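Field reference: sequence -> structure
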Amino acid sequence: MAVELVHVSDIHFGSGESHGRLNPETGLNVRFEDFVEALRKVVDYSIENKIDVFLFSGDAYKNASPAPIYQKMFAAELRRLSRAGIKTVLVVGNHDQLLRSTQSHALSVFQSLEVPEVTIIDRPLSIRLETASGPLQLVGLPHVTRHNLMTLDKYQGYSAAQLDAVLVSHVEGLLRGYYQELDPELPTVVTAHMSVDRAVAGIEEELLVGYTLTFPTDIFVDPRVDYVALGHIHKHQIIRQADPAIVYAGSLERVDFGESKEDKGFVRATIERGKVNYRFHSIDPRPFVTVDADLAASDDPSADLLLKVEKKMLPGCVLRVRYRIDQERINQVDEQAVLSIASGCLSVRFQPEVIPSHRRARLPQLTETAVASPVEALGAYIEELEGLEPERKERLIGRAREVIAQLSAELHNEAGPS
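Structure field:
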């Protein structure tokens, strides 16, 4: 029989909430509720379709110290899977890890509670899962970094590049050892939370980290492996079609505008030894819409901006309005009018690009003769300043003459001995 598997990744409870607002009925951020609903859709699908294995390939939360409400909502969905008898595999991702000497991580609580049917991959392992449709071999890797190597005396003095090379070699050797121990007659899935060299990175901004080690894709290529379920990259993509299939499920919901053009969802895979069918399923994520408007040459900036917003916005979307306008005309843009017509959007964010005025830098009075005299040049500038009374302009020019005279005396040693 074929084993039915759902591959989901990078849920990131707690992220993206800056684009939402408080739901007065629940007291929760609407964007958090979006993420919960996305996970609930996948769990509903898994239960309704009698899926054998629910494989989550890392990053349950925004960070390794999740708020209790995030843990509660995540645990509620795991409990539903457990009650349905679905084998659940949770890979510890980089956002789930604590860089401490202890081996604690954000998913440790599920180990402590010994939730039935749940397997936590917080260290490299190779296990056999007994599912309703038959056995499945699983090789798993949590997110790995050079952090642990740096604490070992034998690697003191190694450069970052040398440590990375050692780590890649270790992981490759570890996987080859696991592959040799596999039963060639049984279907096999490998899962890991990492970047591979053939992947196209997502461009989400909120969750970007400074250091990510990239592994060669070929460490997963082995005739005994059928499907490789990867996490960490937010863009859903198929790295290798078959023998084995290597797939990133992608993040489950949009985190920010960097993911506005990416669909979000999960992958269902039907796995037999030597034969795999898989397909991406969208969870219909909340739309992120950007309106760009160049209003520099517009006769009626507000009207033109409103027209563009009306044409492009979608009900319930997260809306970003970027417009370009001259500094002197910034007050002609009525953002309140935009907010009024966009009241059906979840949130609206304005990003104006103000074109600075160069009028004062191009005063016709600043001729070559005037510029040769600092007092005359400064006087011409002060005369053009708006809102200054004539008496104050005279005082400023007089003070400028005194300062310039003092500087000139010091430069020419006319101030006498000190």
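Note: DSSP finds ten helices and 17 strands in the chain.
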